[in-house]
Amino acid sequence: MAFVRYFDMEKDVKMKDEQAKIKDQDGVYLAIMLHDVIYDPVMAMQYSKKVLEKNVKDGKEAKRGKGYDEKMSVLKWKEYVKMAGGALQKFDPKVTNLILATIEHKIPNHVSEHERVEYAAFLDGDMSVVGLDFERYKVYSEQIWFEFVKSGAVTDLDYCKGRPAVLAKLVNGGVYLQDDELRGMWEKSAERNVSWETEQLTKRAEGMKA
To answer: pTM for this one?
Structure first.
């Protein structure tokens, strides 16, 4: 199984260097395989809206719910652990914690130094898609649009209006890559990709409003 998406030789070597530092590679691999085992844009959007409505009703801050897919993936992982009759127990709570870390894409403050390396490699592998070469990124962006719009999770207009904010947070909000060297190698391509997709979505939204 591929650890992350490799782009070129320099990045390939760097990612393998990071991989070699991981003590519990089996646990991290399980998290990679399972962190999106439940991926349902429709249910995720419904969950987000319900949490927002409840927060408003309860007089709390008007925040949407996050992490539906991640929380459901953890529940599925717990099912697998139970079915395995203890064979997978040694990998929990590591797998659970790694999956939940993808909600905010941040490394928890309480982890040890060797765990920090595992979190960084896992989260960077998950986020590396933003730094794909341009042609591959175009395919990825089309796939994401299809998953959300064609499934009925959101309208085309709402997607075009909301997606740029998500992309901006990824690149500018400090959650893109944990490793400074990797960020240096992928930052320009990520900024180019995000800029292109944002421009395309903005034009599309303007065309629908005209």
So the answer is: 0.81
